[in-house]
Amino acid sequence: MAVSLWRSRLTSLIHRQVASATSRQFSQRGLNESMDADEKRVTVTRRRDSFAVESDEVKDKRLFMQMVEKFKAANPNRRGHIEFIEVALKHVEEFQVHADMSVYKALFDLFPRDKLRPKNLTQAAFVHFPRHQDCALHILKKMSEHRLIPDQEFRLMILDIFGPETHVFKLYCRMMYWMPKFSNASPYRLPKRLPRDAKELALLGIQRITGVDRATEIEVFEARELTESLDKTWIVSGQSWKQRELLLEESGKNPLKIEGPFTLWMKPRAIQYFTLIGEPRIKPEVCIETDDVSNLKLRLFGEKEEPTKDITNLPSVHEQLDGTVFACCATGTSSRDSLLSWLRFLQRRNPVLERLPTVFKLRAPSEALVNVDMPNKSEQADAWAEESAQSQ
Q: In this protein, which residues make up the domain named ECSIT C-terminal (predicted)?
């Protein structure tokens, strides 16, 4: 009896000791996890604060690289480099370094060497250091968004840090296969650095639009040359000799229309352009009875087919199904007065425009939409008639 009582007391004592040790272990683990979470939160906050620049400082590449070097000097063992890279990627557009290859190389150089390389295929199959690989993938995806093609030096950095059997190197191989193909796919290539001046950007855009006709002449006008103009701005106009010939064939039965604005995107920037357009031209259809076998010619016996008497001219590139384009332009303000000045400049080389009625068919700009009352058909017709009389 005494032995069984002693055993029960010993068993209960052991259970209490195990429960106490387990509770201390779980409490210590929870404390460590909370401390790690707080430390991580503080680390991310510090990384964000490192990119908080005062208003009097210029956000450029020099300041961005200075922050990267400052992080290297303060962290010789690269502690918190993942958080720093992720925060830095969010500020590349703000510092205007999103299209600079050297900046991405500097961020990629923050990864430690030899530590992240898988030692065997098993480690590679189970994604060795997954968070580091995800961070490196973010760098490559950011480069892909800004159309930056990695070079040979970037390839050596990936092999040195992560090795060939990782998702980072596989994404690099896919980028090197597809991006050179897509970068050379367009026959109308844009320069790597677009001009900042709005007039030069509009000149580049009109050249891109009118590139289908090599005979197009691009002219730049200044509205201040016209004494009756109210909007003193620049006008970039494009017109070819073929379009002038098509204008001479207009009878004036249907009014010409100035339509727009239309948006042309060139990389991250856009311009608004307008077109002078007329009614579509109906070409006579050549009717050929393909099922008629009553008058077949046999070339084997020297018989020749008689030429057809139905003759028609092929339509030019300016004669589209929805209308005939006579000219296009881009102005500094995209206002109605600037378009009226453009029409007066066109009358210098196209005197026929002085007798052709022209109406404005303008859309509200997408950036500043306002609510207006739609006029009825009679009021709209009167307004168009008044605009046509003023243009004449």
A: 240-363
Distance CA 89, CA 103 (A): 10
φ, ψ of residue 194 to 5 degrees: the values are -75, 150
For residue 127, CA distances in Å to 80, 116, 130, 146, 388 come to 20, 10, 5, 27, 71
Nearest to 51 by CA among 65, 38, 33: 65
Q: In this structure, are residues 142 and 89 in contact, taking their beta carbons and an 8 Å threshold?
A: yes
Q: Can you give the residue ranges of every domain in the chain?
A: 30-183, 198-281+315-391
The label of the residue with tokens 């109308």 reads 188
pLDDT given at position 200: 93
Complete edge-to-edge strand list for the sheet that includes strand 256-266: 217-222, 234-239, 324-331, 269-278, 256-266, 358-362
Kindly give the residue spans of alpha helices, DSSP state H, lying in the chain: 2-50, 61-74, 81-90, 101-108, 121-125, 130-145, 152-161, 167-183, 198-209, 241-248, 336-349, 377-391
Beta carbons within 10 angstroms of residue 205's beta carbon: 24
Instruction: Compute the distance between CA of residue 244 and CA of residue 276 in angstroms, rounded to an integer.
Output: 12
The pLDDT tens digits of the residues spanning 289-333 come to 777 777 777 777 777 776 665 566 778 889 888 899 999 999 999
Q: What is the pLDDT of residues 326-370, one digit of tens each?
A: 999 999 999 999 999 999 999 999 999 999 999 999 886 544 433
Q: Are 264 and 271 in contact (CB under 8 A)?
A: yes
